[in-house]
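Q: I'm writing up a methods section and want to include an example of the input and output format. Could you take the sequence below and give the corresponding predicted structure tokens, formatted cleanly so I can copy it straight into the document?
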Amino acid sequence: MGRLVEPRPDPALVQADPNQGVKDYLERVAKYVPGEILAAYLTITPVLIGTTEAGSGTRFFLQLVAFLALLFLTPLYFRFMARPGQPKRLQMGISTLGFAVWAYSQGGIFTTIGLYHPGAAALFLILFSLSSGLVAPKPGTR
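A: Here is the clean output for your methods example:
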């Protein structure tokens, strides 16, 4: 199983196995979440919080750099992970949005700048997770 979402299978295959559609949906949800990038973010965020003073410009700057750097690296990571001919643009876009949603759900820089709300974080995370699985690349797309 590759790291990127593959185009939808032939509808005849889905009809042959009624569970295939659910399996494909769940696989897409899992593959759109940039787990490797999130692991880096979840590792560095507590380190930055633990080694800087609350309300300091240093904490804000380091958290902002970490968030923006990983946001920028997300599409590059999926571009690198794509095999030749494999559709990657949709994956790159959805996974970058996914990183932003998951990063927001963890607080981090958004708490520091006063934009974090736990209810909004839960709502965004649930909506992203449920809706991302509905999106699948079409055969022949890049």
